[in-house]
Design brief:
The chain is of the alpha+beta class. The protein contains eight helices and 24 strands. Helix 2 runs antiparallel to helix 3, helix 2 packs antiparallel against helix 7 and helix 3 packs antiparallel against helix 6. The protein starts with a helix and ends with a strand.
């Protein structure tokens, strides 16, 4: 019994010793070193860029308006149309301009006739006849063209007005002015309201001015009366001082009466102006309500006005033809009765001309001015491009000021992007720098570009941020790019070609404290040494090292718990597959 108990105790002791041995083994530090991330120093290009967002534009947009006000006679283009230089885009009624041209030509013909009758020689008279014939032909040609254009305008007016235009829901209406009529009438109401408000404000301001003038005149009268009493008291009214004071008092009283009358008259005039403005406002509101019912009448009026313009053009043609024939006949008659001599006059530049020749020259200038007025009734495309906007509608009145905007032409040419860069980034950009552009709305599309200009003055936002506009010309832009799209612009500001490059995560410290961990292998032993390096360009995807390492050196990427690198900074991310060929596991 005692022997069995002994063996049991021995077994328990052996088991306890085995457990203690396992615990000691499990707590012993492992001899296996932790895995390290490494990277090999390689040669590559380092680039640094700055990036900002911007908007796609097309440079050189042309805004064309009428130089001469008038009723729009034709609109020949729509937004999106391709046009070439010299294309007539729109015209206004040129009847009045052509009448002025006809009058100027008639004056020229009369001047030619007068010159012909007063020329001293048959040669001069012959030249006058030639001029008269030329002017007559030109007049007939221009008047014939005016008749043709008036016929075209009448045809357009007939085509544009249709019963479907009286139905606002119809898609068949060929006249967009019918749908824009309400906006135009509303604009008249707004204008009348502003005029009424202005008349009320003017009346209030004028009333204050009237009261001030009356009060000042009253104070002046009181002063003059006091001066009269002082001058005439005790001395009689026949002294010079008393008489002068009485005269001054009389003048002051007249001034006071005049100020009172001016106030009465001014208040009445201001009241009448308010009444007139109120009536205009009421009339504009009535017109707003009656617009739809008057569309039919507007169509009839447009046709009637075009027909009247045609009749006027035909009448001018007939009159011009008769006037031309008469001037030619008169010039021909003058050829046989030229004057023996004629007095000469000196004109600008020292040139001497006969009086009749000077009159012809002046009349020719007047014809050129009138012809320019006719030319100003047309809008002509100055360059090849695409139509952007067309605000004009046939039948509406176009102003010469271009208050409603004009026809815009987007010239054929390169696309540009205008981006606003922070002042610290803009300082690094120079004209000619290459850029890469991506478009928010076009996934996967990108284009190359070149910086063509930088704003000389920055813009300060509400938050105090200063930015500079940088214009980048896009090279071979995708065909799907449109003006107004948002784009991201990345501009190259510095680069180093074929230099030693490592990832940012392999470098700790900055400036003269920059260092790397270099892996060294001697036989089967591997160790790491801290090496001071000199940094070059710090780019978007890597850092240039100018001194301290060589191509092919293996660097250890320091980990967050690496205590063997006390002067290191915060380690960067793992190196990617860039110019370094990926990290090695050791």
């Amino acid at each position: 019994m005692r022997r069995r108990t002994l063996w049991v105790n021995v077994g328990i002791g052996v088991a306890i010793a085995a457990v203690l041995g396992l615990i000691v083994v499990s707590l012993r530090p492992s001899s296996q070193a932790p895995e390290q991330r490494t990277v090999t120093v390689a040669r590559a290009d380092v680039t640094a860029t700055v990036t900002a967002s911007g908007t796609v534009e097309r440079s050189g947009v042309v805004d064309l308006t009428f130089a001469t006000p008038g009723t729009v006679a034709s609109v020949n283009v729509e937004a999106g149309d391709d046009v070439s230089a010299g294309t007539i885009l729109a015209t206004v009624d040129d009847t009045a301009a052509r009448q002025q041209l006809a009058a100027a030509e008639s004056t020229l013909a009369q001047a030619v006739q007068t010159s012909a009758s007063s020329n001293a020689s048959a040669a001069s008279a012959s030249a006058a006849l030639s001029d008269a014939s030329r002017v007559a032909k030109q007049t007939n040609k221009r008047n014939t063209l005016a008749v043709d254009q008036a016929q075209e305008s009448l045809a357009v007016a007939k085509d544009l007005w249709d019963e479907s235009c009286l139905d606002p829901t119809s898609a068949l209406c060929p006249n967009p002015s019918a749908q824009a009529q309400f906006r135009s009438t509303q604009a008249s109401v707004d204008s009348a309201q502003r005029a009424f408000d202005s008349s009320v404000e003017n009346a209030a301001n004028n009333a204050i001015g009237y009261d001030v003038a009356v009060n000042q005149a009253g104070e002046s009268l009181t002063q003059r009366q006091n001066q009269e009493n002082s001058a005439c008291e005790g001395t009689g009214s026949e002294t010079a001082a008393c008489t002068s004071a009485q005269t001054a008092t009389l003048a002051a009283r007249q001034a006071y009466d005049s100020a009172v009358r001016a106030r009465t008259t001014g208040l009445l005039v201001d009241q009448q102006a308010q009444q007139t403005a109120s009536l205009s406002l009421a009339s504009a509101n009535v017109a707003l309500q009656q617009t739809q019912t008057e569309l039919r009448k507007a169509g009839d009026d447009a046709v009637r006005n075009s027909r009247q313009a045609l009749e006027t053009a035909e009448r001018v043609y007939r009159q011009g033809k008769v006037a031309g024939e008469q001037s030619v006949s008169a010039a021909r008659a003058s050829l046989t009765s030229a004057l023996a001599s004629q007095e000469t006059v000196q004109v600008s530049g020292g040139e001497e001309l006969t009086a009749s020749d000077a009159a012809i020259e002046s009349a020719e200038v007047a014809v050129e001015v009138a012809q320019q007025a006719v030319d100003n009734t047309r809008i002509v495309a100055p360059v090849d491009g695409v139509i952007g906007s067309v605000p004009y509608v046939v039948g509406e009145v176009a102003t010469a000021s271009g208050a409603q905007g004009g026809i815009t032409v987007l010239p054929d040419g390169p696309i540009e992007v205008v981006a606003n860069f922070a002042e610290s980034d803009a300082a690094k950009i120079v004209v000619g720098s290459p850029a890469t552009i991506t478009f928010d709305a076009l996934a996967g599309e990108r284009a190359e570009g070149t910086v063509v200009s930088i704003d000389p003055v920055g813009t300060t936002s509400n938050s105090g941020l200063i930015t500079y506009g940088v214009r980048v010309q896009v090279i071979d832009a995708p065909t799907t790019v449109r003006e107004g799209m948002t784009a991201s612009v990345s501009v190259l500001v510095d680069e180093a070609i074929d230099v030693l490059v490592v990832p940012q995560s392999a470098v700790t410290g900055t400036d003269d404290r920059a260092a790397v961990l270099m892996q060294r292998t001697e036989g089967a032993e591997t160790s790491t040494d801290k090496v001071q390096v000199v940094l070059g360009l710090q780019g978007d995807a890597g850092v240039e090292i100018t001194t301290g390492v060589e191509e092919g050196d293996v660097l250890v990427i320091p980990s967050a718990d690496d205590v063997s690198f006390p002067e290191g900074g915060v380690p960067g991310p793992e190196p990617d597959d860039g110019p370094f060929g990926g990290g090695d596991e050791s």
